[in-house]
Amino acid sequence: MSGFVSFVGSGPGDPELLTLKAVDRLKRAEAVLFDDLSSGPILEHASPECDLVGVGKRAGRPSPKQDHVSQLLVDYAQSGARVVRLKSGDSGIFGRLEEEIDALRAAGIEFEIIPGVTSACAAAAAAQIPLTRRMMARRVQFVTGHDVAGALPGDLHLQSLADPGATTVLFMSKRTFPALAEKLFDTGLRRDCPALLAENVSHPDQTLLRTTMEDLATLLAQDITGAPGLILFGELAESP
Question: Suppose 34 and one of 38, 84, 92, 118 were both cysteines; which one would form an S-S bond, judging by CB atoms 3.0 to 4.6 Å apart?
């Protein structure tokens, strides 16, 4: 007997940003494996009889290994359960979705992917800015700020990141941002290029800091909060 897995993007944390399909799958689930940022009010949509299993990973904290998370998905599904794998934002954006899909395919388990609102889109909406603009920002690029060891990735295409015609969103990048910023300045990016630091996006304690790349690099070199955040930079990050 084999169950079914729904990969559900929970959005950035505000339960009102869940899609109708996401809410439906949560209500019908018999097991929900959720990330840290997908907890709280979002889980209130799950049935009281549902197994709720926290499998979130946070930098610098003890976290479940990916192999363990994938095996949990397989085990629950092989028991015949309807399973929701609840991932923050959109599950296809830096969520290690493919590794979990590979485990299900290897076990012959069927699944679906339900997209969610990315924190990048939610941050731009909160700041009341678009991610694109005709004749100015023709391209949007989503980039991870750390590799599997938590360091700045060594294979970033710096010329693309320094492109003045793009809006760039850096995920999981607060600790590595000062080093990246210096590389981008050396590549030609303006030191006064507008930047936005968005933390706890869509939550009641959300903060938005509009600044410049140079000033943000200086700030993050001195003080890094534990709040989840992203950095958006480019001409559109400037105050309206």
Answer: 38
Q: Domain limits at 128? A: 119-237
Bridge partners of residue 34, in order along the sequence: 54, 86
Tens digit of each residue's pLDDT (9 = 90 or more) over 187-232: 999 999 999 999 999 999 999 999 999 999 999 999 888 899 999 9
Residues 26 and 79 placed together within one structural domain of the fold: yes
Task: Write down the catalytic residue from 87, 90, 172, 213.
Answer: 172
Q: Which strands, in side-by-side order, build the sheet including 4-9?
A: 51-54, 31-34, 82-87, 4-9, 110-114
| 172 a catalytic residue | yes
Instruction: Verify whether residue 213 is a known catalytic residue.
Output: no
Pick from 114, 142, 172: which residue ends a domain? 114
What is the CATH number for 39? Answer: 3.40.1010.10
Question: So what's the pLDDT on residue 60?
Answer: 55
Whether 35 is catalytic is yes
Same domain, 100 and 180: no
